[in-house]
Specification:
Largest sheet: 7 strands, parallel
Family: Belongs to the D-isomer specific 2-hydroxyacid dehydrogenase family.
Number of strands: 16
CATH superfamily of the largest domain: NAD(P)-binding Rossmann-like Domain
Catalytic activity: (2R)-3-phosphoglycerate + NAD(+) = 3-phosphooxypyruvate + NADH + H(+); (R)-2-hydroxyglutarate + NAD(+) = 2-oxoglutarate + NADH + H(+)
Bound molecules: nicotinamide-adenine-dinucleotide, 3-phosphoglyceric acid
Strand order of the largest sheet: 8-7-6-9-10-11-12
Structural class: alpha/beta
Shape: elongated
Number of helices: 14
Keywords: NAD, Oxidoreductase
Strand content: 15-25%
GO molecular function, one term: NAD binding
CATH architecture of the largest domain: 3-Layer(aba) Sandwich
CATH topology of the largest domain: Rossmann fold
CATH class of the largest domain: Alpha Beta
Number of domains: 2
Distance between the termini: 9 Å
Order of helices and strands: HEHEEEHEHHHEHEHEHEHEHEEHEHEEHE
InterPro entries: ACT-like_dom_sf, ACT_dom, D-isomer_2_OHA_DH_cat_dom, D-isomer_DH_CS1, D-isomer_DH_NAD-bd, NAD(P)-bd_dom_sf
């Protein structure tokens, strides 16, 4: 570690902004990391649904990791502009959501919740009267079966594909809509899923619609008045994706008009709470021990790999880039994705007589990221010169291996 600046040799500080499963926190080796909720200038932030904006930025912040899927609680563009990758943990909580969707499909089909409430109201009756009342009245809670009905899955990623597979197993017909399906996600999708060309096409055919897409500006109120007007009368809607994707006022209108028979959501709002036909859960989709542990481990491992080696896997705002460590002295440089950047970086290194042993460069939208392994250690002047190049937004010397 000779020549390594003392400031950069200190422990990495990881700030947690939500309760993160202990097995994830234990991934951080104690000799190199301190993990706490109180750091004012952390190297990295680890969180779940806590809202995180640009005020969290400071010059030493290197990364943000969301132990979970949705990143709409984070002002991602502000972190991108500052050269800070934002990681998430795709798929790590998908099974937990899938299982809750199964429960919601059943709650939306059978008189389970009103039936339970009604049975509780019968406590004053003796056994014989209770039995007679139940057999006389149970027709009020009659439901319908899932087998043979059509499920429309909007968003066919990690969760949507698992939900589709589960529904096929229940004997449902499955149709799906996803205008941005990745190649990997397409591979995961069971071949029986019929892809729809548009949301209206899906709405017109589905008895049940389940949402598994991110909240983006383009998906805000995607399920609004227009979409509900295209729905099959009596459709059941499941929202285990995000509030904001469904326009609650339009959902209420659709419920009252009988277009929607039930709205099952993980995102309660005052407008919906008392409406018959609404089943609202307190954002429980990922709240299982297994899912919290999967997310925490994955988020921690990705942070460690980035902080120690500069590798990026599962960032939502940076390219994926992994370069094996083969010795040498590693630099990580982020820059705006504009021409002539790489040439300028290499020219600073050449001027300092630094030989490049290995390097990788990738870009994603407006940002580019470079890992450079050098034969000899760059000094502080080189780092300052790299940081001064117009368009460079981050320069970091990685700890030696
Ligand atoms: N209720 C919960 O606790 C809970 C848990 C996990 C995830 N979520 C939510 O579910 C979302 C999906 O999670 P995931 O792990 O499946 O993510 P994912 O990235 O694997 O899949 C999302 C899919 O949505 C698709 N998509 C994007 N825009 C779309 C559009 N306009 N119409 C249709 N599809 C579109 C994408 O192409 C992608 O295939 C997350 O963003 C999060 O908001 C909620
Ligand atoms: O996007 C997600 O992963 C879920 O909404 C889970 O959120 P949580 O980690 O706050 O439970």
């Amino acid at each position: 570690m000779a020549g390594w600046p003392a400031r950069e040799l200190r422990m990495f500080h990881i700030q947690t902004l939500n309760q993160i499963a202990v097995c994830g926190l234990e991934r951080f080796p104690r000799e190199r990391y301190e993990v706490a909720s109180e750091f004012s200038q952390p190297d990295a932030i680890l969180l779940r649904s806590h809202r995180l904006g640009a005020e969290a930025l400071h010059p030493g912040l290197k990364a943000v990791a969301r132990a979970g899927a949705g990143v709409n609680n984070i002002t991602v563009p502000a972190f991108t502009a500052a050269g800070v990758p934002v990681f998430n943990t795709p798929g790590a909580n998908a099974n937990a959501v899938k299982e809750l969707v199964l429960a919601a499909l059943l709650l939306g089909s059978r008189g389970i919740l009103p039936g339970i409430d009604w049975v509780r109201s019968l406590t004053a009756l003796d056994e014989q009267a209770m039995h007679a009342t139940i057999e006389a009245e149970k027709k009020r809670f009659r439901g319908q079966e899932l087998t043979g009905r059509t499920l429309g899955v909007v968003g066919l990623g990690a969760i949507g594909s698992r939900v589709a597979e589960m529904a096929l197993g229940l004997g449902m017909q499955v149709i799906g809509f996803d205008p941005a399906l990745s190649v990997d996600a397409a591979w995961r999708l069971p071949h029986q899923v019929r892809r729809m060309e548009s949301l209206p096409a899906l709405m017109a055919r589905a008895d049940y619609v389940t949402l598994h897409l991110p909240l983006l500006e383009s998906t805000r109120h995607l399920l609004g008045r227009e979409a509900f007007s295209q729905a099959r009368p009596g459709m059941r809607l499941l929202n285990f994706a995000r509030d904001g994707i469904v326009d609650d006022a339009a959902a209420l209108e659709a419920l009252r008009a009988g277009r929607l028979a039930a709205y099952l959501t993980d995102f309660p709002s005052p407008a919906l709470m008392r409406e018959p036909g609404v089943v609202a859960l307190p954002h429980l989709g990922a709240s299982t021990g297994e899912s919290e542990e999967n997310c925490a481990r994955m988020a921690a491992d990705q942070l460690i790999d980035f902080l120690e080696h500069g590798n990026i896997v599962n960032a939502v705002n940076f390219p994926t880039l992994v370069l094996e460590r083969s010795g040498g002295h590693r630099l990580a440089v982020s820059n705006r994705n504009v021409p002539k950047m790489l040439g300028q970086l290499l020219s600073v290194l050449a001027d300092a007589n630094l030989n490049v042993l290995d390097m990788l460069n990738r870009s994603r939208e407006d940002i580019a990221y470079n890992l450079l392994d050098l034969e000899t250690a760059p000094d502080a002047t080189v780092l300052t010169r790299l940081a001064a190049i117009e368009g460079v937004v981050g320069v970091r010397r990685l700890p030696p291996v």
